[in-house]
């Protein structure tokens, strides 16, 4: 009789580290941690780093840890930047593989099982799953394999095809990041980290289409249409990386592609923004014009992305 997925994984029994950044998450953290505890694959550690929460988030997790020895709770000095917290979590990993989960999100019970199985079955270093808005968690998802990519193919998928630049849907072999850390940015640190990760020419990445991660979208921050110095700094960081000789030419071109799509998105956020009117008119326009050919010539860009960018270009022309 053929072994099923869990039989195969339990035979390997590698420890998986689930890394959770926490700040003022008292309304959601119990549900988040519970969804991790209820994984079908059990050999996990749940490493929670509290960023000096002002509510009772720490107390909630502390109580949960008394009932589950897999939960490891730490507290660090708040540095107003999630990149520092994620770096602190990377220093606490004991598992052969790790994955991030945000403290206001939910994961399917088969989240770890499907990703870990992809790594073992396809002999890859990183496994990536689908994600969607938190409406209804799919408790019995179907395993839907997509493809195995080398570093260029993986970078292409997250940049041109899926716009999949987050870190929380990617299980990673821990040894790949022993010298890799998040850049101290207040915006866009996920993209920068993935660029550094996928710059490794020896990396193999397995993609599955199963939606296993469910994120919560709050009506604040960038989702509400805010724009400020953090976004300006992020664009400047991307432009700087485009010319960084430590990256391969392929990676630099992929960064240019993401600079283009980010600038397009920011141009929408800036509609009606009087403070950044000149920035939108001059700097954003310059960024887009200098990189427009990348998306025109890149066949890997999905049609819905092209349509969205076209609408943005039209809006930018008619709204001064």
The CATH first-level class of the largest domain comes to Alpha Beta
Q: What is the correct CATH architecture of the largest domain?
A: Alpha-Beta Complex
Ranges where pLDDT stays below 50 over 5 or more residues in a row are 219-224, 314-320
Structural class per helix/strand content?
alpha/beta
Q: Which overall shape is indicated by the principal axes computed on the Cα atoms? A: globular
Number of domains: 2
Number of helices: 11
Portion in strands: 15-25%
Largest sheet: 9 strands, mixed
Order of helices and strands: HEHEHEHEEHEEHEHEHHHH
Radius of gyration: 20 Å
CATH fold field value of the largest domain: Spore Coat Polysaccharide Biosynthesis Protein SpsA, Chain A
Distance between the termini: 67 Å
How would you name the CATH homologous superfamily of the largest domain? Spore Coat Polysaccharide Biosynthesis Protein SpsA, Chain A
Work out the helicity level: 40-55%
Number of DSSP E strands: 9
Overall pLDDT, averaged?
A: 86
Task: Walk me through this protein's architecture.
The chain is α/β, with parallel strands linked by helices. It has two domains: 5-215, Spore Coat Polysaccharide Biosynthesis Protein SpsA, Chain A, CATH 3.90.550.10; 226-318, no CATH class. It contains eleven helices and nine strands. It has helices at residues 5-12, 29-37, 57-67, 82-90, 111-122, 151-161, 189-198, 229-242, 249-269, 277-297, 303-318; strands at residues 16-22, 44-50, 71-75, 97-102, 106-107, 126-133, 145-150, 170-173, 204-215. Strands 1, 2, 3, 4, 5, 6, 7, 8 and 9 form a nine-stranded mixed beta sheet that branches. Helix 2 (29-37) links the parallel strand 1 (16-22) and strand 2. Helix 6 (151-161) runs parallel beside helix 9.
């Amino acid at each position: 009789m053929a072994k099923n997925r869990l039989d195969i994984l339990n035979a390997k029994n590698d420890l998986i580290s689930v890394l959770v950044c926490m700040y003022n998450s008292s309304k959601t953290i119990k549900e988040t941690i519970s969804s991790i505890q209820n994984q079908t694959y059990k050999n996990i550690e749940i490493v929670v780093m509290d960023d000096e929460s002002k509510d009772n988030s720490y107390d909630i997790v502390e109580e949960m840890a008394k009932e589950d020895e897999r939960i490891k709770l730490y507290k660090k000095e708040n540095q107003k930047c999630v990149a520092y917290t994620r770096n602190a979590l990377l220093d606490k990993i004991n598992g052969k593989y790790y994955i991030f989960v945000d403290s206001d999100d939910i994961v399917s019970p088969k989240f770890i099982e499907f990703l870990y199985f992809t790594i073992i079955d396809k002999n890859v270093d990183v496994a990536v799953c689908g994600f969607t808005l938190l409406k209804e968690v799919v408790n019995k998802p179907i395993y839907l394999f997509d493809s195995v990519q080398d570093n260029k193919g993986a970078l292409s998928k997250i940049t041109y095809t899926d716009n999949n630049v987050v870190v929380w849907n990617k299980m990673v072999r821990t040894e790949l990041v022993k010298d890799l850390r998040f850049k101290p940015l207040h915006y866009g640190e996920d993209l920068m980290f993935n660029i550094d990760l996928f710059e490794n020419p020896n990396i193999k990445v397995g993609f599955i289409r199963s939606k296993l991660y469910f994120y919560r979208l709050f009506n604040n921050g960038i989702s509400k249409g805010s724009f400020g110095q953090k976004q300006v700094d992020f664009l400047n960081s991307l432009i700087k990386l485009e010319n960084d000789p430590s990256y391969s030419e392929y990676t630099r071109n992929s960064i240019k592609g993401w600079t283009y799509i980010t600038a397009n998105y920011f141009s929408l956020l800036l509609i009606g923004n009087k403070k950044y009117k000149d920035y939108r008119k001059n700097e954003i326009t310059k960024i887009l014009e200098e990189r427009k050919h990348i998306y025109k010539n890149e066949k890997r860009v999905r049609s819905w992305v092209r349509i969205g960018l076209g609408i943005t270009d039209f809006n930018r022309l008619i709204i001064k």
